[in-house]
Fold these 2 entries.
Entry 1:
Amino acid sequence: MNILCRAGVSGLVRMLRSLRSRTSALLPLLVALLAAPPASAGPRSTVTRKAEALMIDEALRGLPAPPTGSEVDAPARVDAAAEVEPEAEEGEEEEEGEETAEIELADDPRPTGRAGAGASKASKAAAKGEKARPKGAPECEFRSALYEHEVAAGDNLGRIAGRYGVRKDDVLRLNPALKKNPNLLRPGQKLKICPEIAPRLRQATEHVVKKGENLSKIAAKYQATPSELIALQPKKVAERLRKSPKSLQPGQKLVVMVSVSVLAELAPKDEVRGSLAASVQLPAGAGYHVKRPHMAYGTAYTIKAIQAAVSRYKQRRPKGPQVHIGDISSKGGGPLRGHRSHQRGVDVDVGLVHKGLVAAETRFVDANSNTLDVGRTWALIKAFADTGEVRSIFLDYGVQKALYEHARKQGVNEQTLDELFQYPRGLGHPHGLIRHWKGHKNHFHVRFRR
Ligand SMILES: [Zn+2]
């Protein structure tokens, strides 16, 4: 990719300037968003609301507005609004009407293979000033085009997978030569990827450490983790920072990466609309409660994967309360009241696991630090992720933080955290399998592949 070289110094300066102005334009919007009541509003106590506010506050501390173009699952054009959050999805009782983003999603992205269809789509895209979306590749099960990632300094398999919202195993499947030694990556090496998140071209630049800044703060500013930031530094500096992170001095120069462009057309469009030809109903089963059986129809693959995830979770954590399974799709699929997706039998809402009396509640209960069973919720999400059938999991950023920190304390290795979590890179920065989507504070939403 020569784009990086072509951008040149003047391009970089221009880009940095535009980023700065964009960032400041974003702040009021972010503030307004945070002040707004959550989408799944219902009667809740002030205490709960305070706890949530605290969680979000905590999650957002030190979190700058994202300086890069990014779009969370709605592959809208990269603009300031899309950087913050694309839309509210379903909270259970969410009113209809928050549908502004649907316009962006109306095109069916799936390559049809019909003669002429591609051409008309391309001209439509051109008319909108967009690049034509390339056809889905067979290696990517036609969900997205095949992309070539060039290994850069600081990359490891978990980070690379996370960047594109896929699993390490997906990368290994597409690049079998890596299987012998997945940790032996060299800069410049090319890897095939089927991106679930739009590829971003990045460029190295310099950050001068200011007084009061530490590694986490600087890392968050550039949508990185502290270890990732350290890995970008020359060997000696990196070694020193690893040994003593506090040796960081004001005035010191660090190498950082900034996104220079987003190849939005290379991410799959979200296929939220559609129907479900052969639907299978999730039967009642041991270990889980189906909230609305008449809304629990899915594809055979999805139903099987849900059952596999629950039984795997129950094996690991046999003592917990029943798993609360929310809506999947209606029989036959199509639009489902209260949801924007859940049309094709591949989406399921799953309640967070709580402790105490709340644990038995069949309605979804908002996460708060008093009742959230972080360990079990993490085990449940992991069980879903590990079915190998999941495209993405949507979960509130503040809840992600709680799970991330728990997992890290439990010794989950960093590559896996980098692979799975968007946190701590900022809620406007798409990364990992588990990503923020407004309205997912009392449940997580799993989107399956088929
Ligand atoms: Zn949902």
Entry 2:
Amino acid sequence: MTGRDVPGVIYLLHFQQPYRHARHYLGWTEDLAARLEQHQKGQGARLLTVVREAGISWSLSRTWQGDRNRERQIKRMGGLSRSCPDCGVKPRIRQPIDLGRAAVEGTEATAHGPRSKQLEPEAGG
Ligand SMILES: [Zn+2]
């Protein structure tokens, strides 16, 4: 019984505008409704106090079930925007790189004449 394994809710707040380098606040609570009410008044977290003073609103983006250890894990992972639906989590588009490589290889193939892909399996991987 360390007090750290209390089940609760981990919540991610998404700021409508970034405050300096911060765009999110990740917190943990046993009572989410009460906690959000506090935050709306600019209470409970220093960051949310200054965000409120700056006139930036925020929304609850998502929650996880878990204890404070889990909260730490999520914080340590970094890149909260990648966990945030409000930031528009989308698969990365890799096309620009792939097209560039294809174009270069195509040019080489023309310069050296046609070559069989069977003889040269994809190098560099
Ligand atoms: Zn976000």
